[in-house]
Amino acid sequence: MDKLESTRNRLIELLANAKEQYISGQNLSEKLNISRSAVWKHMKELEKDGYNIEGVSKKGYRILEYPDKLSANTLQWGLNTKWLGKTIIHKSVTPSTQQVAHQAVQEDAVHGTVIIADEQTKGKGRMNRSWHSAKGKGIWMSIVLKPEIPPHLAPQLTLLSATILAETLAEFTALEPKIKWPNDIFIHNKKTAGILTEMQAEQDQIQYVVIGMGINVNQDVDEIPEDLRGKATSLQIESTNSWNITELIQHILVKFEDAYSKYIENGFSDVKVIWERYGYKIGEIVTIKTMRESWKGKFLGIAEDGALLTTKDGEIKKLYSAEIEW
Ligand code: BTN
Prior knowledge:
Acts both as a biotin--[acetyl-CoA-carboxylase] ligase and a repressor. Belongs to the biotin--protein ligase family. Keywords: ATP-binding, Biotin, DNA-binding, Ligase, Nucleotide-binding, Repressor, Transcription, Transcription regulation. The protein is of the alpha+beta class. The longest helix is centred in the last third of the chain and has 22 residues. It binds biotin. Biotin binds next to α5, β5, β8 and β9.
């Protein structure tokens, strides 16, 4: 990051932290150690990038609106993370950000590289399903991680990611997201977001993991494919508000960095507690489907290692790969 860019990041951070309050040009110039005319020039540059900044004499500046135009710059400016999103690859259109992420790793992408697209033409879901990713309507993002954990623990990263999404969406929108096992985010009984984890590993070592997140943000009902309307929704549909995608991504990344670092340091036990706080239908009778069979049982929550706990014929079963339905 060059000096100009880091000054601008800091400027946005100061304005963003002040929220509705004005910060005087003098105050900004002192905090940033630049002249007042340099502050003014930065403001003009920010406006070019789509920030709506109000400048009032004797009061100062404040941000009225953040840009809704996605770019690596608008995402990084004001992004308060240490390692996540220090490299952001932004594509206006791409088949899949997962594909871009795998390619980026071949070209030495570092831990914490983030890939974002406005639109995906071949968005991938779990189980070889496709994922609708219309232009500018949602968050289509992949995160490259190089975790030093054994490969068998990788599914915990997916559960961790689900808790991060649920917590961020709850804070950001005041809606009440639920996590449907293992990692779909539901709001008002319909799917709003999904997570796809792909891993490259050797016997006992993960080379890298790509966490793909798809979040339906600003679709209207008629923009949800007709065959999915009974099952899928968006934040806008459920809240009757549209949401700033750049801001939401920044919130996710900040929470992701924090939660991931705590997980690497402390293990899965705190993640389990948060997962169960948001877990959907815990304590209820659900249909459990594995590769081989399907039965009705009670969903008991998750085990210390993240496995699904259910009942089957009166006994407790621990499952590592299953779907639940109701
Ligand atoms: C699912 O619920 O089935 C998972 C959906 C994951 C979709 C995201 S969008 C960003 C990333 N790129 C993809 O092609 N898929 C994931």
